[in-house]
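Case study: DNA polymerase V.
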Amino acid sequence: MESHLLVSKESLAEYKDSEISYFIAPGIACGFPSPATDSLEVRLSITDFFTSNPTATFFGRAIGSSLEGIGIFENDVLVIDRSLRPVNNDIIVMTYEGGFTAKKVVKEGNEVFLISENPEYPPVKVADPDNLIVWGVVSKIIKDPRSVVKNRYGHIRKVI
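Here is what the predicted structure looks like once written out:
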């Protein structure tokens, strides 16, 4: 039986340059069950899956509700790639007017807006682009399905 290792934040540096990979089922039906798969010998490299440029990638935990409209909830882990150049409608991590935040960036003509995907938070027009410092583009989102989850009807389910 294969043992599973939990890697602490402190010891993660040891694995930075090594290849960590796991077996992955090549297709798990989320609707009707699929006939038996031919092989489960497919390998998934966690580094390759989450990053295209490991040296330019970092992780951050989402706090708040401003991006719930696009499925980013409190405690989701954001995979942030500093090597990607933001394009229209990307989710970016940035500092703006002294705050460190994640927002959708939208450019309309010469104007740039920071959009929260929650009607409780209005769009912010970037008055001075020099005050907007992009740290990176959110390239992936890691979710914990056993944490607090809002379903599509807005009901909260908490695993006990």
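For the exam, be able to explain this: The first helix runs from residue 46 to 50.
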